[in-house]
Amino acid sequence: MKTTPPVTIVARQPGEPDPDLLGLALAHRAMLTDVGRLADTVAAIRDGQPCPPRRARAIARYTELMCESIHHHHTVEDKVLWPVIDACAAGIVDLTELTEDHAALDPRLDAIRRRANAFRIADGDGRTATLLAAELADLRTLLTEHIGEEERDIFPVIRKYISVANWQTIEKTAQRTGRLAFDGPRTLAVMSDEERAVAIRQLSPPLRAVIGLLSRRHRRFERVVFASSASRDRSSTAAVR
Ligand SMILES: [Fe+2]
């Protein structure tokens, strides 16, 4: 991640509305959705579903991008969000366990990248699919637990102690340092129809066009990776046409 200056703390004012945590919740939703369906996809290949070399390459690339996105998410939390929580809610919450989770997840993400590369080189054979499927299943378990704890323990603290101005700075930092071509379409795809309609109304026409283009491209990528299971993205792609 590009280096980011520390956030200047803006104190929360009495009567100020709570920060809107939908963006963070959607990032979590996208991660869990993708880890789950990738684990299922590779398990199906392990169990005999056909995987031509082109699909193996696409799965390896998708896995690599997903690991990069998860690592980026945790880096923003460690380097940007946690310091703001420490400054605004000192003594209210202990971030040690969540920070240790991030440190423990990094070597797992590296192992998955190595397994995905071996899967690509072996043209998606059963042996490398077995190893990759096992790693992805472990990641699904760890991430589900970690995100559950984070939303239970941290979301109420952010709502109560962090100003809207600081929250917007944190969100902008996450967006600026992330990969829009991958994260944008995935975020749109996990929104409910109502959430998507609101989000699209807030985009400028040029940005709406860019997101539409990226979503159509991402959907073609997904069709190769997930074979028959890319239909969930159809409505999100249509919404930004
Ligand atoms: Fe998170």
Question: Can you walk me through this structure?
Answer:
The chain is an all-alpha fold. Helix content is 76%, strand content 0%. The chain has 10 helices and no strands. The protein has helices at residues 22-46, 53-88, 96-121, 126-153, 155-161, 164-177, 180-190, 193-201, 205-226, 234-239. Helix 2 (53-88) packs antiparallel against helix 6 and helix 7 (180-190) crosses helix 9 (205-226). The radius of gyration is 19 Å and the shape is globular. The structure holds fe (ii) ion.
Small molecules (ligands, ions, cofactors) in the structure: fe (ii) ion
- Please compute the radius of gyration using only Cα atoms: 19 Å
Shape: globular
Distance between the amino and carboxyl termini: 31 Å
**Percentage of β-strand residues:** under 5%
Low-confidence stretches: none
Number of strand segments:
0
Helix coverage percent: over 70%
Sheet with the most strands? none
Written as H for each helix and E for each strand, in order along the chain, the element string is HHHHHHHHHH
In DSSP terms (H or I, runs of 4 or more residues), the helix count works out at 10
Secondary-structure-derived class = mainly alpha
Mean pLDDT: 94
